[in-house]
Amino acid sequence: MSEQAFTVDGMHCDKCAGNIEAGLIRLDAVRQVSADATTRLVHVRFDDRRLSADDIAAHLERLGFTASASEAP
Prior knowledge:
Layout lengths: L1 E8 L4 H12 L4 E7 L4 E6 L6 H10 L3 E5 L3
Antiparallel strand pairs: 1-3, 1-4, 2-3
C-alpha cells in the first residue's frame, strides 16, 4: 500500500471534493480517499502494485481537474 497527496486545481467547493472522492474510490486499487476543497489537497491510499500515482493523476484529469503529486502531509 502507498499513500500519496495531490494538489488539485479546479476543486473549489465541497461538491467538487465529493465528486473526486466518488470518482477515485471506484478504482479497484484505491482503498481510501480524502479530498479537501479548502486546501485543494486529495490524499489517496492505494495498492501500488496495481495503480501508480500517475494513474491517479490521469484519472483526476478525466474527472475534469488538474492534479500534481504533492509533498503535503
